[in-house]
């Protein structure tokens, strides 16, 4: 039974978008044709995929095509495809609400300045809605393959749309754009042909342009090459074609940083066309980012699968592109692909090619910096996930460092090794929530004094990275706040601390009573108390054993819902600090007050949250007052 005609309201965000479209004076409005043709191509791909398991969906018509017809009498442009079509519910979901492409992100970038916002349209495309850049009324007719009845959708972009049933013999979708007066140039066949060749020549289905004004034999002609771009020789493809295909296959608005187009022939035969985006794709943005792949699988040029995550490891999920195999079955399923030997071999090759591509990009520091700012935090996951390639991945990592000016600059582990001081035996690093917090840490004082470079790790993933990456090219990685430091080779140690290994833990006689008293007062909070080898300005710091979990890691796990009790660190006191030296003349109770103050200060410098901040403030005020009276 046919459903009655109904009028529905657009989502508020869609209404906002349509208002901008309708009133936009954006000059490069031709992107609307790129977006609608891409949608038509996707619909045909979906039909071919679903027909693999149900040939009846072809309805006896295997002619897969896209048509663009000029209707000069009605001042309209008509786009048709013989794809999968849409049901009534799908029309409402795909057009009445925010699309799954870049529309939401586009809206988030809007500034309120109509001129500036209009410029964004050409970058984002914004899917179906771009039709209203050139049309003041849009009528869509569609019938899903296998359905008995079609659907008619109509809107003037004024906040509402109508849905009704309609008879439609041919499956697929037809969109009729009633053009605005200032868009009548899109009734010119030469202009349409130029736009199609520029943006859609790579579409692997024929695109026909129909112009009734031409002689009968010229009325209908194919205007695109209709060969899948990845099947063509690289020498025949220019950069513009590669870039346009990227925007199509990734539904992206940026331009790729680089790409690889590789045909593998041997025991296996397959083609890779992979792109490295400039900016994070929409699904990898924000706290709710989807953990999906951007690789599409084709088998003998037949589209099989979106988000084919089995062809690249998770830490390369930012890659966009196509894999086309001659060795897989057309009826292959996602479940079968997970444990397929052919897929495992293809994955190995694909991963190797992508890492080689990144290695080539790294030769251009500025280009690589752009990649690292967008995807570095994701790429680092490879250290944990892919131990077999750990050293290869480590060579491509970049870190902030105290050895370069500007907190936005990064260095590689190779850069660090080249600058290591004579006698330095480790790559040192510090983890913190921010760069500024890291460089202000008391743990860096001795390194600054001796001119030893320290890597600054601030990404959440860094804690896991350094727990798995113990060394790089036989040089160990060591945290500046773990274990005892061994920097004797880099200069003279302070006289108060014994220099011999045998006497390392020996405490000078004049400090024994102070250290024992502090240890007794803090016995519930610290493992040990000792004089520091790493402090030059601060009175105290906390140090953990090499195997112990750091304060930042503990906080991250707690935030993730995994309760981890705080361990007992070692408190190090700076014997050259004025406040610490005063403790030699203090009574036992007064030493206890200063010991607790130093302990809380050291915890704060690590980014910890004190259980009783008010108590800390009262103690600090009290002791400062006593000092002022002396």
Helix and strand topology:
Blueprint: E1 6-9, H1 12-23, H2 31-51, E2 66-71, E3 76-81, H3 88-95, H4 103-109, H5 114-124, E4 135-143, E5 150-155, E6 160-166, E7 172-179, H6 189-200, E8 207-210, E9 220-222, H7 239-249, E10 258-265, E11 269-276, E12 294-299, E13 302-305, E14 320-325, H8 334-338, H9 341-361, H10 365-379, H11 381-385, H12 390-394, E15 400-401, H13 413-418, E16 427-431, H14 435-439, H15 445-450, E17 455-457, H16 462-468, E18 471-472, E19 475-479, H17 509-521, E20 528-531, E21 540-543, H18 551-559, E22 570-573, H19 578-582, H20 588-605, H21 613-629
Parallel strand pairs: 2-8, 12-14, 16-17, 16-19, 20-22
Antiparallel strand pairs: 1-6, 2-3, 3-7, 4-5, 4-7, 5-6, 8-9, 10-11, 11-14, 12-13, 15-17, 18-19, 21-22
Helix pairs in contact: 2-6, 17-20, 20-21
Name the features:
630 residues; alpha+beta; Heat Shock Protein 90; Ribosomal Protein S5, domain 2; Rossmann fold; 4 domains; 9-stranded mixed sheet; 5-stranded mixed sheet; 22 strands; 35% helix; elongated
Q: How much strand content do the residues show?
A: 15-25%
* CATH level-3 fold name of the largest domain: Heat Shock Protein 90
CATH class of the largest domain: Alpha Beta
**CATH architecture descriptor name of the largest domain:** 2-Layer Sandwich
Q: How would you state the average pLDDT, rounded? A: 84
């Amino acid at each position: 039974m046919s459903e009655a005609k109904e009028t529905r309201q657009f989502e508020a965000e869609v209404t906002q978008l349509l208002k901008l479209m309708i009133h936009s004076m954006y000059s490069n409005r031709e992107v609307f044709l790129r977006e609608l043709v891409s949608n038509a191509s996707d619909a045909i791909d979906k039909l071919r995929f679903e027909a693999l398991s149900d040939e009846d969906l072809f309805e006896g018509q295997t002619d897969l095509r896209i048509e663009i017809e000029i209707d000069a009498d009605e001042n309209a442009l008509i786009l048709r495809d013989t794809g999968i079509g849409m049901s009534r519910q799908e029309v409402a979901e795909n057009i009445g609400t925010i699309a799954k492409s870049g529309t939401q992100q586009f809206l988030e970038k809007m500034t309120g300045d109509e001129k500036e916002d209009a410029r964004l349209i050409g970058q984002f495309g914004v899917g179906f809605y771009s039709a209203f850049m050139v049309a003041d009324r849009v009528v869509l007719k569609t019938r899903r393959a296998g359905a008995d009845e079609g659907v008619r959708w109509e809107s003037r972009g004024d906040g509402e749309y109508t849905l009704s049933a309609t008879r439609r013999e041919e499956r697929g979708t037809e969109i009729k754009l009633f053009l605005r007066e200032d868009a009548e140039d899109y009734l010119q066949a030469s202009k349409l042909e130029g736009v199609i060749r520029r943006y859609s020549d790579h579409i692997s289905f024929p695109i026909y342009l129909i112009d009734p004004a031409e002689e009968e034999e010229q009325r209908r002609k194919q205007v695109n090459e209709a060969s899948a771009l990845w099947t063509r020789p690289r020498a025949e493809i220019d950069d513009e074609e590669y870039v346009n295909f990227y925007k199509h296959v990734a539904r992206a608005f940026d331009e790729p940083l680089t790409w690889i187009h590789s045909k593998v022939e041997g025991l296996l035969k397959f083609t890779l066309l992979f792109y490295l985006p400039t900016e994070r794709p929409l699904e990898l943005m924000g706290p709710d980012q989807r953990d999906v792949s951007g690789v599409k699988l084709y088998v003998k040029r037949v589209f099989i699968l979106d988000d084919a995550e089995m062809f690249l490891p998770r830490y390369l999920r930012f890659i966009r592109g196509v894999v086309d195999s001659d060795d897989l079955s057309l009826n292959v399923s996602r479940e079968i692909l997970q444990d397929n030997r052919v897929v495992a071999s293809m994955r190995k090759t694909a991963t190797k090619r992508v890492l080689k591509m990144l290695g080539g990009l790294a030769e251009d520091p500025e280009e690589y910096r752009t990649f690292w700012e967008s995807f570095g935090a994701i790429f680092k996951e490879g250290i944990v996930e892919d131990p077999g390639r750990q050293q290869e991945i480590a060579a491509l990592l970049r870190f902030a460092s105290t050895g370069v000016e500007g907190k936005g600059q990064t260095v590689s582990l190779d850069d660090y090794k080249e600058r290591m001081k004579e006698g330095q035996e480790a790559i040192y690093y510090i983890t913190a929530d921010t760069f500024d917090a890291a460089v202000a840490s008391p743990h860096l004082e001795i390194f600054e004094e001796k001119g030893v470079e320290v890597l600054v790790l601030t990404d959440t993933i860094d804690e896991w990275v350094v727990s798995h990456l113990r060394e790089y090219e036989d040089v160990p990685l060591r945290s500046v706040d773990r274990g005892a430091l061994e920097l004797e080779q880099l200069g003279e140690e302070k006289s108060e601390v014994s220099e011999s290994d045998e006497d390392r833990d020996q405490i000078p006689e004049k400090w024994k009573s102070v250290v024992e008293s502090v240890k007794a007062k803090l016995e519930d909070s610290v493992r040990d108390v000792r004089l520091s080898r790493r402090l030059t300005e601060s009175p105290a710091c906390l140090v953990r054993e090499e195997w112990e979990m750091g304060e930042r890691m503990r906080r991250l796990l707690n935030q993730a819902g995994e309760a981890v009790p705080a361990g007992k660190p070692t408190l190090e006191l700076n014997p050259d600090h004025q406040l610490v030296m005063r403790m030699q003349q203090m009574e036992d109770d007064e030493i206890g007050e200063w010991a607790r103050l130093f302990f809380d200060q050291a915890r704060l410098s690590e980014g910890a949250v004190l259980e009783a901040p008010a108590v800390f403030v009262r103690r600090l005020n009290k002791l400062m007052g006593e000092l002022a009276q002396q």
